[in-house]
Amino acid sequence: MKRCGIIGGVGPSATVDLVQYIIKNTPAKKDQEHLRMIIDNNPQIPDRTAALLNNGESPNPFLIESINLLKQAKVDFIICPCNTAHVFLRELKKEIDFNFIDMIEETIKYLAANNIKKAGLLSTSGTAKTGIYQNTGKQHGIEIFIPSDKGIKKEMEAIYGNKGIKANPKYEKSKNNKDLFLDVINEFKNEGIKTVIMGCTEIPLCLETNDTTVQLINPTEILAKSAVDYALAEKEGIKHGAKSTF
Fold this sequence. Notes:
single chain, alpha/beta, Rossmann fold, 2 domains, four-stranded parallel sheet, three-stranded parallel sheet, 10 helices, 7 strands
């Protein structure tokens, strides 16, 4: 069984959510059959969207520190429950040798495997405006749509507002935040889009599949399943758990 390393704290609740999905998707019959996970839960990693769009502090030194800590702990692969952080992690992968399962790549592969040719994207403005989902989708023949500027503003309020999901766990199930996301989903529905990616790991803490008639795709769960597949596989190259090409 391979040892899983997690760059955590981005955010803290999203990290817990990922771990819970890993546990739920592990075919274990006793404690000893679950994955060994080493988690560097560091909420002090600077905000990724602020770094990308507002000249904020770079998270790279903190991500590098986390990667090195996990490598010292002899993990076999690393995952991260933050979509926006993947913009930085993909670049770091070019400079640092670490085995990384890419959540965005895995999500797009899931869409391709299920013959989904287009999807809307709920996310931070950083994820939307860097085009990381759109460009990855294009490589697989999948068109990814982002909301209008007004829609992105609503998403950011639900995620980063004074009563947003990141502000406090008590706002994770806030009706106001849920309604903001549903407004954006309705924007997609009006454009004939029937599948929507919850492309910020805070969003599944608020939205549930029965909140809307569109198909909601949860990258956190997809990443968890990929991690389990890879950790338990005797050989590399299985369907969802293969090494990232990034």
